[in-house]
Amino acid sequence: MPIDSIWSYAPELGQVQGRELTGYTVVARDGTIGHVDRQADHHGMRHLVVDTGVWVFGRSLLVPVGVVEAVDAAERRLTVSCTRAEVKEAPRFRTDSETMDPAYLTAVGDYYHRLPPRESATG
Fold this sequence. Notes:
- By secondary structure, the chain is an alpha+beta fold.
- The protein has one domain (3-113): PRC-barrel domain (SH3 type barrels, Roll), CATH 2.30.30.240.
- 15% of the residues lie in helices and 30% in strands.
- It is built from two helices and six strands.
- The chain has a six-stranded mixed sheet with strand order 4-3-2-1-6-5.
- The two termini are 17 Å apart.
- The model has no long low-confidence stretch (mean pLDDT 87).
């Protein structure tokens, strides 16, 4: 996956473009991560801020939209192509200002880009 595509939804998820995903449950390959607290697109780096609830002691995580592999609007659920541990090990998200910091966003993108590729859950 080219590094710039980590910040864009997969072409087959075209219907997601512009959809409000706040409140959707975020599910990894091995279980629920949390729910989408908000969406952002700063510096062309589209991402979701995910509230983990008690799973990571109330910590929020930043997830590039390029790891979203499926969206179920009826169930208000989206699936990401990584594991819970991989999401948890991403560069730590501390403050909202980081969603506008190109250096932080680049570090997050580099991390997710280096994860091993997986086959899509749909194919």
